[in-house]
Amino acid sequence: MQDKIIYLDNAATTAVAPEVIQEMLPYFERYWGNPSSLYDFGQQVRADITDARTRIAANLGASADNLYFTSCGTESNNWAIKETMFAYQNKGRHFVTSSIEHHATSHSAEWLEKRGCEVSYVKVDHNGLINLEDFRAALRPDTVMASIIHGNNEIGTIQPIAELAAIAREHKVLFHTDAVQTVGHLPVNVEDLGVDFLSASGHKFYAPKGVGLLYIRKGVKTKGLLDGGAQERKRRAGTENVPYIMGMARALDLSIEHLSERAAHATKLRNHLISRVLSEVDHCRLNGHPTLRLPGNANISFEFVEGESLLLMLEQKGILASSGSACASGSLDPSHVLLAIGLSHEIAHGSLRLTIGHETTQADIDYTVEAIKEVVAQLREMSPLYEDFIAGRKAVSAIK
To answer: Residues with catalytic annotation?
Structure first.
């Protein structure tokens, strides 16, 4: 492995920014009081949390009273979906989502089905985009809620959330969006989007792991998540994770301050990466929408290559990425997202997700492209499927 690590898995997690660490340290070292305490040592911490909540809310176009701190985006999604569905069960028990959601949403949908709810999964096109009329058709008089991911964590496709939320509102259906991949990377304003719920997670925009948020529009009825205390306006009991909340507020401030330049940087490198790979490696394809995609996301499938082997060999060259295949997690099934956009199991297994951060350089991308070319060639040399294809014993490749 080379000495330098090229980290291209920023959709999985980001490094904590130095400024964020500095923001957090005082709450470990000096201001470690319990914010529920009545004495000044605790009340000062409570005031700081209030300030952090106000700053984060302002960055999202929300009121601080409508923002709740959680441990992560997964918790936020579970809270929004499960507790709201049962809060409105007198209206109905129908839930609508898409076929390409993060597992935090799709597994919550499965949980609902096991408890007597009905779930409709709206299909997407070959770019991973939802058709507005298909979404409209899925809504029924007994539909309580819809949840659609803002920017897909695997293929990067960005959904028309404002338009989808407007359709839901016309049908008096509550609307939640998983904005874990977009908050801190794209302009996200809850009023502009028109959503009733929005989830985000700090570690996707250079805050630490273990802190997230849920926006709940005023007037929306939902059950509380945890009992046992008055924290988070009696909806989520438990002593607040003060250092991490302060870190998330600082991280979002920084992300918003540098939003345009970081997005432009990531988009430029993403396009350079995609262009080089597609033009210099045969039998590969881009997954996700070509333009309506997250700034730093490139998801590419390579035929006659197994994704896990590709990942492991790239790691030996100092490149850290992720695969579109679920093999690395112990499953033999490929990504449900890649299957939903029409890829075969065989091609879906040969997918690679590269996600760019603001610290990524063009030299990193060029090194990565050369490494991909070398590794793909090596793996194909060992592939009996590729040998058959070259020898003419296999049908023409599905990817040009």
So the answer is: 327
Spatial distance between the Cα atoms of 236 and 279, rounded to a whole number of angstroms: 51
Interior angle at CA 237, CA 14 and CA 195, nearest 5: 60
From edge to edge, which strands make up the β-sheet containing 212-216?
67-70, 212-216, 197-201, 174-178, 143-147, 94-98, 118-122
What single string gives the DSSP state of each residue in 202-217?
GGGTTSPTT-EEEEE-
- How many whole angstroms separate alpha carbon 263 and alpha carbon 267? 6
Dihedral sign, CA of 235, 241, 246, 247? negative
Share of the chain above pLDDT 70, in %: 95
Instruction: Let me know if 230 is exposed, middle or buried by CB neighbors in 10 A (0-12, 13-18, 19+).
Output: exposed
Euclidean distance between CA atoms 301 and 202, whole angstroms: 29
Sequential DSSP letters for 251-319: HHHHHHHTHHHHHHHHHHHHHHHHHHHHHHSSSEEEES-SSSB-TTEEEEEETT--HHHHHHHHHHTTE
Distance, CA of 226 to CA of 369 (rounded, Å): 47
Contact call for residues 71 and 210 (beta carbons, < 8 A): yes
Strand, coil or helix: 323: strand
Q: Which amino acid is at 129?
A: L
pTM of the model: 0.95
Domain boundaries, the chain: 18-257, 259-390
Q: Is the pLDDT of residue 125 over 80?
A: yes
135-187 per-position pLDDT tens digit:
999 999 999 999 999 999 999 999 999 999 999 999 999 999 999 999 999 99
Distance separating alpha carbons of residues 216 and 220, to the nearest angstrom: 7
The more confident residue out of 389 and 260 is 260
CATH class of residue range 18-257: alpha beta
What is residue 368's predicted lDDT score, i.e. its pLDDT?
A: 98
Do residues 379 and 310 touch, judged by C-beta distance below 8 A? Answer: yes
- Environment class of 369 (CB within 10 Å of its CB; exposed 0-12, middle 13-18, buried 19+): buried
What is the C-alpha radius of gyration for the chain, rounded to an integer number of angstroms? Answer: 22
Tokens coding 150: 């803002």
**How many angstroms separate the CA atoms of 101 and 278, rounded?**
26
CA separation for the pair 318, 237 (Å, rounded): 43
Query: What's the CATH superfamily of 259-390?
Result: Aspartate Aminotransferase, domain 1 (3.90.1150.10)
